[in-house]
Design a protein that fits this description.
The protein is 28% helix and 23% strand. The chain contains ten helices and 15 strands.
Length: 387
């Protein structure tokens, strides 16, 4: 709108455009300009999938033998490595070895993440945190709490054992709090003062590290989980972007992507460097199911203070849904985050052809929906988040 008012041009620039953008370009709504190569001598890195079923890490480790060997070789050549894991902290789950209790944030089903640098347990959903206790809050067993799974802090710990002489740093929102701290890490990496950088998605975009030749993706499958229709596309975009940090100068780059799903279309497209092929698969699936950008979608989240009321209002909402030509409703079903701040959440997903006025349909539904005072409803037309 600002560009329209100013009679200016808008340039949308991305190496991994969204399917919606590509379809708009193909339909003539946008003009499409292609940059088919990197500037100068730089070229795109070679990408290889590491099948974790065949190259299983040692017990208690998260780096496969293939990736570990490549880290050692890169360090010996005095080149830099980047390990990517989109999971902050030390361990994403804390469990009691005595009773099996999994520590959760109060009022949610969100697991607490162990942050070893600060010795705190943190909920990344609500921000709630507490010092790590020395005993289980459920059974009282002393020294029984154990972190399960890897976060960036744990991966960095493994690298320090593998490469004791290397300078290893963690780059996440926990270690780069504020612009000055972020610039400090970026400047040290660009100057070659860091040998191995272990980071979350904060490392994926916009950074140019001339000495970086190896990128290792520790867990490529994490973004494929959940009920998000764009999960595959987002995973492809993010991993393509982080892999693109390697080989940006005169030395060739390489990306090793650890996965248990090497046959997934997103993984196959990454290995082949076939962005257009991947987008065609995504396009065909969404067109067949009338999903965006070929159809429209809306989400309705109902919440209540107890599960009985949530079930009751979910059934009532389903019965009150108006009939609409071409409109299909799914639900009620537990929302991906089923309990948040003590409230139990149910979700409806509604799909319709593009010519249907979905906003009017949802407004008509809300007008006839009678809910108890304690219940809440939220509607998101054309949702981009599926939590």
């Amino acid at each position: 709108m600002r560009a329209k008012l100013e009679e200016a041009a808008v340039i949308l620039a991305s190496a991994t455009p969204a399917l919606e953008t590509v379809v708009s370009a193909e339909s003539g709504r946008y003009e499409r300009l292609k940059l088919s190569a990197r500037p100068g001598a730089a070229r795109l890195p070679d990408m290889d999938l590491v099948d974790l079923r065949a190259n299983t890490p040692e017990k208690g480790h998260w780096l496969s033998p293939v990736l570990s060997k490549s880290l050692v070789e890169t360090f010996e050549k005095k080149e830099q490595s980047l390990l990517f894991l989109n999971r902050r902290g030390y361990a994403p789950l804390v469990i009691c070895k005595a009773c099996g209790e999994r520590l959760k944030s109060p009022g949610t089903e969100s697991w607490l993440t162990e942050h070893r640098y600060t010795n705190r347990l943190v909920c990344h959903l609500t921000g709630w945190s507490m010092p790590k206790p020395d005993h289980c809050p459920m059974c009282g067993a002393k020294d029984s709490l154990m972190g399960v799974g890897p976060g960036v802090e744990r991966v960095a710990e493994e690298v320090r054992v593998l490469l004791p002489d290397a300078h290893v740093e963690v780059f996440s929102s926990d270690t780069a709090m504020g612009g000055e701290a972020t610039r400090g890490i970026v400047d040290r990496m660009a100057a070659g003062e860091i040998d191995v950088l272990v980071g979350t998605q904060i490392v994926a975009k916009g950074h140019n590290f001339p000495g970086l030749t190896l990128v290792g993706v520790v867990d490529a499958d994490s973004g494929l989980q959940g009920g998000d229709l764009r999960a595959g596309e987002r995973t492809y975009q993010l991993l393509s972007q982080v892999a693109g940090r390697a080989g940006r100068a005169d030395r060739p780059g390489r990306a090793l992507i650890q996965t248990y799903q090497p046959d997934n279309p997103a993984m196959q497209a990454l290995a082949a460097g076939d962005r257009d092929g991947f987008l065609k698969i995504e396009r065909d699936v969404r067109q067949e199911l009338t999903l965006p950008p070929f159809g429209r979608m809306a989400a309705m989240i109902l919440s209540a203070p107890d599960p009985a009321m949530a079930k009751e209002i979910g059934l009532a909402a389903g019965k009150a849904a108006p009939h609409g030509d071409g409109v299909t409703g799914y639900g009620p079903a537990p929302a991906p985050i089923s309990i948040l701040r003590g409230r139990h959440r149910l979700r409806f997903l509604i799909t319709a052809p593009r010519e249907v006025d979905l906003s009017a349909y949802m407004s008509a539904w809300l007008r006839v929906l009678k809910l108890p005072n304690a219940a809440r409803v939220a509607v998101d037309v054309d949702p981009y988040s599926f939590l």
